Amino acid sequence: MTDTAPRAAATADAYDAIATLYAELPRDQLPLERALFDAYAEHVRAGAAGPVAELGCGPGPITRQLTDLGLDAYGVDLSPVMVDLARAAYPELRFEVGSMDALDLPDGALRGIVSWYSIIHATPQELPSYLAEFARVLATGGHLLLGFFEAEGGPVAAFDHKVTTAYRWPVDELAALAADAGFVELGRMLREPGEGERFRRGHLLMRRA
Hints:
By secondary structure, the protein is an alpha/beta fold. It has helices at 5-23, 31-45, 61-68, 80-89, 127-137, 171-181; strands spanning 51-55, 72-77, 95-97, 110-116, 138-149, 157-159, 166-168, 183-191, 201-208. A hairpin with a 6-residue loop joins strand 6 (157-159) and strand 7. It contains six helices and nine strands; from the N terminus they run ααβαβαββαβββαββ. 35% of the residues lie in helices and 27% in strands. Helix 1 (5-23) runs parallel beside helix 4 (80-89).
């Protein structure tokens, strides 16, 4: 059991409880997000063939999107209920229950990782262990795409996410933590809050050194 396991279990329980409602939320992406996924997929396809894991896949729409972009993608989520919903919605795809900080994978097994707003519940003390695990399972030259809530000039800050406590990160600080874990930044995208959104959105595209 990892040090983060008790909090991870509580997060899984919280998402289990709202999984059906969560799956019904609209999933439309804005043009900037769609362009970012296109760029990510192009980087991955340019390298050696291999699997791409969406970590924190929820009900599965991003995993489906990655597959549609030509990637050998599958999903992993802490919440068994979310995984059941993903399997029902996309029976042709693979989804597994698992924890992002303790993946059942050998070193260098993946060519890509997408963590789309799934590291937001990790505390500042926990996040380095998540990034270290991402680096462990990514092959050299593999690509990581992170989506997160950006701190807009402030420090790391907790906020009252509807499911459980989440954190906003300064993009420079998160990029530095990723660099410490062995990632090289290729690009970043910041998007101001849209209608009905509270916070700026941050995105980092990185390569495993």
